[in-house]
Amino acid sequence: MEDAERIRRIVIVGGGTAGWMVAAALAKVVGTRTHSITLVESDQIGTVGVGEATIPPIALFNKLLGIDEDTFVRETGGTFKLGIEFVDWLRLGHRYMHSFGLFGVDMNGIPFTHYWLRSMRNGAATDKDLFNAEAEAARQGRFARTPPGAPATMPRINYAFQFDAGRYAAFLRSHAEERGVERVEGRVAQVGRDSASGVLTDLLLDDGRTLGADFFVDCSGFGGLLIEKTLGAGYQDWSRWLPANRAVAVPCARSGTLLPYTRATAREGGWQWRIPLQHRTGNGYVFSDGFVSETAATDALMGRLDGEPLADPRVLKFVTGCRQRSWIGNCVAVGLSSGFLEPLESTSIHLIQAAISKLLAFFPQRRIEPAIAERFNREMTLLYETTRDFLVAHYKLTERDDTEFWRYCRTMDVPDTLRAKLDLFRSRGEVMPAGHELFREGNWFAVLYGQGLEPDGYHPIADALAADELGRRLDQIRAGVGARVATMPAHSAFVARCCAAPA
Amino acid sequence: MTRRIEKVVIVGRDAAAWLVALGLQRAVGQTGVKVQVVELPSLLQPVDFYPALPSLAGLHALLGVPEAAMLKACRGVPTLGQRFVGWGGEGSSFVHAYDIQRPAIEQIDFLQYWVKARGQGLKIALEDFSLAAAAAKQGRLSDTPAGPDTLAGFQPGYHLDALRYVRFLRGGALAAGVEHRPATLDAIRREGDRITAIVLHDGTEIGADLFVDATGAEAALIGQMPGAEVTSWGEWLGCDRILAASAPVLRPLPAFGQVTALRNGWVGLYPLQDRTALIASYAADGTSDQDVLAEAAAAARVPVSGDVVVSSFEPGIRARPWVGNCVAVGAAAVGLEPLDAVQLQIVQIGLSNLVALWPVEADTMPEAPLYGAAMASHAANLRDFQIAHYRLNRRAGQPFWDRARDAGGPASLQAKLSLFGSCGQVPLYDDESFLAQNWSAVFVGHGLIPKSYNPAVDAVPPQEQMESFQKLLHVIAEEVRAMPTVETWLARRTG
After folding, report:
1. Residue A227 and residue A326: Cα distance in Å, rounded?
2. What is the pLDDT of residues B26-82, one digit of tens each?
3. Rounded to two decimals, what is the model's pTM?
């Protein structure tokens, strides 16, 4: 193709988690030999530092960048994560685990959970997590990866990471800068557009410098400096389903066992996260200021820390929703500038990663075909919407009526797409997610069942096994999971051995 | 506790009826559900055959259909793809091969490198980098499973004699415990949107909790249900008539089917062990069956012998393929022309969705709309794959083909064409039967070349890239040379 048709200069606006993830990926895949990649950020603008907890697909991003996992965990003060424990969501005193693992093994072409439902109906009372190695390991505070050379028939241990988002951005920054990304310190004062075509042409910085580019990535955060303030993409507001609009966050000193999972505890007007890292514990209270004041939420959070606070609490404001279009012309928004979903299922970094992999796959020429932006926007919107539905289910299925917030959530209308899933689950114990959805049957089962939605039926094929044969197989699977977990070291021992952060 | 389905009756004929009967017997028969086939007189003739995609082998494995015995009984021949002749104008041709694993370089799809190299003057066709296409052209196919030192192994599709295949499946189903009642259908008894019984010609009434309509395009049950009318796809798929005939066996046996464009449609040649099946699909408007037969035989360069059978069809889908307790499978639910070997694929999709959605409760069946949505989604993708052939044709000055090129197409296909045309990515939807490399093989084969390629390709130095191309061509040539011919491959299996 003609050289003049190619994108040569790329500018990334904003240097938080999203900005440096984009920079590192572009530097690796597109390369700075043939392209100039510049990231403009200001030390005076704080970053949100979202996404301290992640989900398993992040391993693909690490692989793309060629990052060694132990190095990455060490450099970010990270820990391993097998799932999320939900406390007080169904009712006060109730808890359940949403692990990254599979339940049992599929039999006769249908998921194990149908067999488990049948056994429960016939009077068994076996905790489903005993059939899930990740859930059981999490409960016991153990962790190990799938051993190298394990037989292909052995199920893999599915895990993600919990880490210090500030250190993660710094880690990716050095990765990107080593590969030739140029960092420019400054604030964007004005955005230049071509008057005829409307495409972005350059950025005027507050010190008078100008940065021209062929392609712009907006990682400027909630406000969407390019995508919204300049290009007017528009925003779908989902706060009627996810009413939280504030988070107050504070780190505290590490205490107790180093848990291989994140905890989400339902509170008066939202929920509180607890993310165990090597050097501290991350905490935050996600709430709606329509139900709880900022002061009350901050006081509540500070009163419930399990270690000495290590900083002053910081309040973040947001509106849950999704940009109508996150790719317009020669500008694509990645991260909070493209939308916001509360970190209840640790999806923030995944949403960034998904946008990056689509951008790389569809990487355009200078004259950008509308089909590319249309497809990108369609895929991102579907990802946001289906993830939103999964989050809404956590709130909708509560039995709590002890505060105004939970009464609202319990009685609110939900999106039709979620309604259909809940109805299907109620009738037959499965939701049949479409192929493009992030959360799969096992994820939905863990959360919907965990939230107290007990199905009326299960797949009839589960009746094919004779009762004693079913009992024998369940015992066998449970014993296998138990034996496997027993071989795993304590999570803290695993971290100390392979990837302890420098003190 | 809910009331389970105790009995299912499959009313129908031919491969659809027996594949579904065997599938249901294997899946739910073991839970105590009684599976009965009320078999209507066959519509098949000795000239008929079934083309099958590689996915049929997977279904056979699930159903316990022994592959070697099946191939022997059905005079079956393995096929690695289809060669399209004349769709891009006189003298043009390309192969759509079934290997979906063309090696990536540095995690980037091979196609991207090919697009760049082509822009710089490379004259080697995309299909020359396909192991299956190369093997198909030489009448050979792999005899060993994929290994670490070979290109990914691929499963062939099949060409099967239709009457023999039905007989073989029927035998398997009966042996598995399916009940069988040959009959003709007089009426159905219905209360609201539920069938209470079907009435046979001898007056017998047969009841069931669930009725499966596998009667083909006749749609003897679903056609009488409320709200199950057909949405036609005729505006995009112009053929409405099919002609079937036989030609002498080809020696050596080719490992592909060949689909040649005609003035008003196309003719396909499909090798079997003892004959060659021939099918023409065309627009009845503006041509006579006699003319088509003559043109087809000339275009396919084979003498046509014996019976010639002609039938009509309409491409389209039932608005509701499952109404009440009546669920349609195969051509009773979705009508497509016999291009790209989709007929048995439609049956297979219906069976797998029916098993996945097997009703928990016999009296309500809220699964019906989910089945409808799944069928619509799968069928739309298959439909788009077929339309793409017409949409991208480059035959000049023939009204049928000009119309097909100008007919546009569904937005779903348009999005695929636009994105592929700009950057070589195929935007897949849910429920695709054909994967990205199938789509790109067909798009490129018909002349749609992406305008740009992934910039990551530039990270590989040109010299290195050229060497990897040469190495790949060399490996393909070596591997094909080591493969047995179709005849040898068959002899090793069927004795």
Report:
1. 7
2. 999 999 999 999 999 999 999 999 999 999 999 999 999 999 999 999 999 999 999
3. 0.95
Q: Does position B148 have pLDDT exceeding 80, yes or no?
A: no
Q: What is the 3-state secondary structure (H, E, C) of A32-69?
A: CCCCEEEEEECCCCCCCCCCCECCCCHHHHHHHHCCCH
Could you tell me if A189 lies within 8 Å of chain B, comparing CB atoms? no
Catalytic residues of A: 81
User: How many angstroms separate the CA of residue B375 from the nearest CA in chain A?
Assistant: 13
Q: Where exactly does CATH 3.30.70 map onto chain B?
A: 241-312
| Chain B residues 354-413 within an 8 A CB cutoff of chain A | 355-356, 358-361, 366-367, 370
Residues in A touching B107 (Cβ below 8 Å): 64
Give the CATH number of domain A3-52+164-235+323-368: 3.50.50.60
Stretch (H or E) spanning B69: helix B67-73
Residue with structure tokens 């030999």?
A: A33
ipTM of the shown complex: 0.91
Residue intervals in chain B for CATH 3.50.50.60: 7-77+160-235+315-380
3-state helix, strand, coil in chain A (%, to 5): 35, 20, 45
DSSP string, A285-343: EEE-TTTS-HHHHHHHHHHT-SS-B-S--EEEE---EEES-SEETTEEE-GGGGEE--G
Which of the four CATH numbers 1.10.10, 3.30.60, 3.40.630, 3.30.70 does domain B241-312 have? Answer: 3.30.70
Residues with Cβ within 8 Å of A304's Cβ and at least 6 positions away in sequence, in order, are: A272
Q: Is the pLDDT of residue A2 over 70?
A: no
Q: How far is A8 from chain B (nearest CA, A)?
A: 10
- Rounded distance, CA B321 to CA B314, Å? 16
- Mutation to test the A interface, candidates B425, B426, B429, most A Cβ within 10 Å: B425
On whether any CB of chain B is under 8 Å from the CB of A30, the answer is: yes
Residue pair A136/A481 in contact (Cβ under 8 Å)? The answer is yes
E-strand spans in B145-233? 157-161, 179-182, 185-191, 194-200, 205-206, 210-214, 230-232
- Supply the pLDDT for residue A123: 87
Distances (CA, A) of B332 to B220, B237, B384: 8, 18, 19
Closest residue by Cα to residue B410 from B219, B231, B217: B231
Q: Using a CB–CB cutoff of 8 Å, tell me whether A179 touches chain B.
A: no
Query: Measured between alpha carbons, how far is B344 from B63 in angstroms, rounded to an integer?
Result: 15
Query: What is the pLDDT, as a whole number, of residue A365?
Result: 85
3-class DSSP state for residue B478? Answer: helix
* Residue B107 touches partner A, C-beta closer than 8 Å: yes
- How many CA atoms are closer than 13 Å to the CA of B105, on its beta-carbon side? 21
Chain B residues with CB inside 8 Å of A372's CB? 419, 422-423
B7-77+160-235+315-380: CATH architecture: 3-Layer(bba) Sandwich (3.50)
Q: According to CATH, where is 3.50.50.60 located in chain A?
A: 3-52+164-235+323-368
Name chain A contacts of B370, Cβ cutoff 8 Å. 424, 432
